[in-house]
Design a protein that fits this description.
The chain is mainly β. Helices cover 0% and strands 51% of the residues. The strands form two sheets. Strands 2, 4, 5, 6, 9, 10 and 11 form a seven-stranded mixed sheet that branches. Strands 1-3-8-7 form a four-stranded antiparallel sheet, with no helix packed on it. Strand 7 and strand 8 form a beta hairpin. It is globular. The termini are far apart. The mean pLDDT is 94.
Amino acid sequence: QVQLVESGGGLVQAGGSLTLSCAASGRTFSQYTMGWFRQAPGKERKFVAAISWSRGSTRYEDSVKGRFTISRDNAKNTVYLQMNALKPEDAAVYYCAASSSMLVTMESLYNYWGQGTQVTVSS
C-alpha cells in the first residue's frame, strides 16, 4: 500500500503561481511513476503530468506544457507540481497518484490516489 497526501492548493489570481506537494508513505516510493490529475466541477478527471521513478522522465498534458513542472524528491518521498501562469481553466481538484507502470497517462493504470487538493484561479 502507498498512502498519498496532497497539499499546497489554494486561491491564486490568474497569471500567478502555486506549488502542489504530494507526500507518500508505505511501499517504496521511488519504484512508482508519480502522476498528477485534475478534475473540474462537472467534468471527468484528466491527466496533467507524470514523472518516472528512475531517470525522472516526464510527460505533460498539452495545455500545461511550458507552464507546469513536475518533479520528485525520492529521499523525501515527495512529488511536486509547480504551476506557473495559471489560468481560470486550471481551476480544479488536483490529485496525486502512483502507478507501477512506466510513465503512463491513463487513470486506470494508477494504483493509489490521494484525497485531492483544491486549486482556485480567479480572473
